[in-house]
Amino acid sequence: MDLSIIAQIVVSGALMGLVYALVAYGFQLTFATSKSINFGQGELVMLSAFFSLTLMNWGLPYWAMIPGGIVFGALMGLVVERAAVRLALEQKSEGWILLTIILGLLFFSSAENIWGRDDRPFPTPIPSDPINILGIDVTPVEISVAVGVFAIMGLIELFKRKTLLGKAFEAVSADRDAAELMGISATGTVKLSYALSGAVAAVAGILVSPITTVGPTMASALILKAFSVAVVAGLDSGFGVVVIGLFLGALEGLASLYLGSGWREAPGLVLLILALAVRPTGVFGKTAIRKV
Amino acid sequence: MLRVDDLHAGYGTAEVLTGVSLEVGAGAVVALIGANGAGKTTTMRAVSGLLKPRQGRVLLGGEPVEGLPASRIARLGLAHSPEGRKVFGPLSVEDNLLLGGYPGLPRFFGFKAKADAELARAYELFPRLKERRRQAAGTLSGGEQQMLAIARALMAKPKVVLLDEPSMGLAPVIVQEVFATIRRLKAEGITLLLVEQFAQSALDVADYAYVMERGRIVTAGTPAELRRDERVLAAYLG
Amino acid sequence: MTAADWKRFLLVRGAEIAGLALLAAVPLSVTNPFALGLLTLLAIYGILLVGLDVTVGYLGQVNLGQAAFLGIGAYAAGITVTSLGGGMPAALVIAAAVCFVLGGLLALPALRLEGPQFALATLSFGALTTTVLNEWESLTQGAQGLQVPRPPLLGVTIDAAAFYWLCLALLAMVWISMRNLLSSRWGRAFEALRDSPIATDAMGVSAYGHKVIAFAIGSSLGGLAGGLYAFNFQYLQPQSFTYELMVILLLGVVLGGRKSLWGAFLGSALIVLLPNLLSNRLLFQLFSGIGLAVAAFAAVQGLRKKTAQPFQALAPVAAMGLLLVGSLVVTNTEDWRKAIFALMLFSVVVGLPEGVMGFAAGWLSRLFRVSPPALPAPAPLDAVLPARATDGSPLLELHSLERHFGGVTAVDGVTLTVRAGQVHGLIGPNGSGKSTVVNVISGLYAPGGGEIRLHGKPLPRGSLYRVAGAGIARTFQNLQLFGELSALDNVMVALKGVFHTPLPLVLLGFARLEERRAQAAALALLELVGLAQQARTRAKDLTYGAQRFLEIARALARQPELLILDEPAAGLSHPDVVALTGIIRRVHERGVTMVLIEHHMDVVSELCDVVTVLDGGRIIAEGDPETVKRDPRVVEAYLGASPEAAHEAAAAGG
């Protein structure tokens, strides 16, 4: 097969993989502070995309819509934190997995009934005519995905490293009790992490929508791959999700090329199960010390 | 400055504290001593809010704080350097110190400039921390981690400092260094409640001491009085 | 049998037999194919949910793969019949076997970690299954669907009623064998490892191995149900076995009540009736109204008794209220199906976490006052804990043992010998490394360096389970009991040398005699620690002191070569400390070698033959208790440096 076609597929796959990485990064944010993740995160991606589309239908320009979508995502993250995660932790149960799944289902059904089941185009001012870079066709929309992913991840990493609140975030994930003793509210930090995670989901929704179109099921495949990326990379390495996301995206492109497009989802799922077998804490993850 | 009245607390079905009362005056160093399992650490945790008291009062500067979340109590001016040091392992030494000053610092930017004086004081107190300020706290030796934990507790200029077992697990030479530090803090007029297993050393620095046994205070007095008390030695060596 | 035994038998078994007879009699009077179809589905989902309950209820793990196993079983059975020309029995066996193997293969990696990874792995497995069923067209016909004939059984054509009876018979068989399994040592191990996987390993019961087997069994029931599903519908499509079905299955288990066969059955009834409920608007409104009333009642109860936080109490009310409003406003309920499931599940998970059965069980047992079966007489202690010869030969040898955590050296070259028959005290100030030493010996931590030998042979490193197998038992400083199990069951989990019946015979109910013997042996050990009267009490409801003693009895059930007691007196009241020394002395008399970590010096001097003192991860003294107590280094380690030394240090340091 022509090498340039393969290169083409690897590059567009990898660019898509960055979106998986971004959603997986959202899992890491909440896992760090509360050891929980939102199983309904895909629905947050989808809801935020729908909401952003609605904002534009109301006449808001694209660039003005973005902050609105992000704020919406953050608010939804807070809803998940209160109605699923904190509620389950108050009951001292592992019920948060079930409750986040349930909330996701509720969001999904609401979207179906509010916006309909059909896929809709998501207008963007960024052109989608391919430009040729080193023999590979890339669309500006695809490039905007990469730029957006790195921008938001970079911003959050800067926040974590350069501001005191960000350092407090890290402190809570290192030692919850000790952080409380420094005057840092652990529950407040968990809330913050869910708001950030929701905002990240919204950004992911806004970035992929021009490519995938917007519909209730737009994120159901995406979220599975984000899970894979998070588990394979480990739930505590921001660098790891980018590497694994790029890798998985490329692998997927190749799988659909050689095995047929129906097998597109398979590599991520197989990779996840393999990763658990070989290195359960993830390729870039840290091993925990058991305590009695 | 700190008053504890009839404090009850425990875990699950076990009631560990059965009515602890004590008082720490401003500028005083008060020691809480007793054998292991007597409830000293539980007392500290119940005072600082890590453990919710079941009954009793905790007054910080006259204000009741029992039942508040630990982060609130910390912001009201109580610093607790916990048992086992609990430094933030992945963060740098300097970040650990800055987080110690969290209550009084701006949340986003400029916090480092504002904490400058306190940082300088911490480094002056523990020059070794200055050398290692960029190093991850988890890679420090046990003694250095203890220095960091003490320095971190002082960063917010608290009204009262609780030091829980600062000598735990340290080599004897380091233990002496830790006590030398406590003496310096005392000289600076810092109000301290010190939990110590090393009764002798604790009595050397304290103005007043309480002896705990099985969840309650069994005796109290000045170090001179307690040294003459047979029960103190008995509480330790049986 | 006593009167109480008869009463229990009639009530418990009677309810099951009556239920079965009633269900079996239905086709004799009802010929409506729709009703029969629902009942058949009820039996099939019953099997499926009993299997799901093994992981969700007993293991306490969120399993999102059961729908996939239903699909795999269905396709395996279908392909057996269509491509391999097998009959129905062969198809069902193959369906169950394929899922048993696949379930085991999935569980091997997925159950190594606790937390969300397991749920994620099963979720991915489900998605992968759908992909494979869709894409492997040569085998499954893909999206076009697979036609499955219902072959005659033993030459007899199976009509709807006969097929229903077949499903019901299989449900009854599954019911009985799962009851046998779950009331055997297997079921106990499943529950134990949910409460404390660490203690399960330390009692020589591999937490990991049991989890994998439990998951494989649950999956094989999913496969069996799948086989029946295939012959019931006779047409299979990959999209029948997706995530949405999985959520409905979870709803069934949670609403019915976890850890209960009746709960699984109730749950399957709910799943079967749900689509019909949603298609009838009036029925749905009625149902929502009842749901709201129940939720409101529970919320008021919870708030009044202060068992629930306000948000927690009100959330289910809000959800059910929303459902009621929805049922009045929305005309096409089918469109909102998922939201309706979500609101119902939410209310149940938050408001009724024990499920209907969990709620009803307590109520029913109060109503009928069924007493548990009488316990056998305790076995003679000589049989349970044979007295050992105590020749004082070296039993456990540590050589230059080391362990670091980050920059901190917790154990710094410890060398010591524990001799057979002795009580060896390990003391030292807080943080001196005692607990780390025993955690390294017992396999919780791998040593950073050095050697550990038992009877001169190297001990396995870094595995609680294998160290337990080598003959070392331990207790935990922070109690690690199986809180939900009774005191008796706690001891029975650890019991060594009693259980020999292989798994298939356990399923057939051949483990009862062995179970009685085990109860007798466990009772003897409970008697030894003075807890025989509380044998039936749940461990988490025991007093703190009793919990400490129970840990000792449980460790003794291992018939250990060496028993490690990690601060058994911590937090005990004075009378309990006296009782503890009595227990340790009685155990010592039976020749059990012990390592005793303790802070109470009075306990140490009273019990120990030899004492080793640690400080800063090193040994600073060793000898008989009286000598050690007077050693100036020990006094210094305990009470701190003398004033002069401290002042010198201050002068030098400051």
Question: What secondary-structure arrangement, pairings included, does this model have?
Answer:
The complex is a heterotrimer of chains A (about 290), B (about 240) and C (about 650).
Chain A: H1 3-34, H2 41-57, H3 62-90, H4 96-115, E1 131-133, E2 136-138, H5 140-162, H6 164-174, H7 176-181, H8 186-212, H9 220-233, H10 238-259, H11 266-278
Antiparallel strand pairs in A: 1-2
Helix pairs in contact in A: 1-5, 1-6, 1-8, 1-9, 1-10, 2-3, 2-4, 2-8, 3-4, 3-8, 5-6, 5-8, 9-10, 9-11
Chain B: E1 2-11, E2 14-24, E3 29-33, H1 40-48, E4 55-60, E5 63-64, H2 70-75, E6 78-81, H3 93-100, H4 111-114, H5 116-125, H6 127-131, H7 142-154, E7 160-164, H8 172-187, E8 192-196, H9 199-205, E9 208-213, E10 216-221, H10 223-227, H11 230-237
Parallel strand pairs in B: 3-8, 3-9, 6-7, 7-8
Antiparallel strand pairs in B: 1-2, 1-4, 4-5, 9-10
Chain C: H1 3-29, H2 33-59, H3 66-82, H4 88-110, H5 116-135, H6 137-140, E1 146-147, H7 160-182, H8 185-195, H9 197-202, H10 207-233, E2 235-236, H11 243-256, H12 261-279, H13 281-304, H14 310-329, H15 337-351, H16 355-368, H17 381-384, E3 394-405, E4 408-419, E5 423-427, H18 434-441, E6 449-454, E7 457-458, H19 464-469, E8 472-474, H20 487-494, H21 503-507, H22 512-528, H23 544-556, E9 562-566, H24 574-589, E10 593-597, H25 601-607, E11 610-615, E12 618-623, H26 625-630, H27 632-639, H28 643-653
Parallel strand pairs in C: 5-10, 5-11, 8-9, 9-10
Antiparallel strand pairs in C: 1-2, 3-4, 3-6, 6-7, 11-12
Helix pairs in contact in C: 1-7, 2-7, 2-10, 2-11, 2-12, 3-4, 3-5, 3-10, 4-10, 8-10, 8-20, 11-12, 11-15, 11-16, 13-14, 14-15, 20-22, 20-23, 22-23
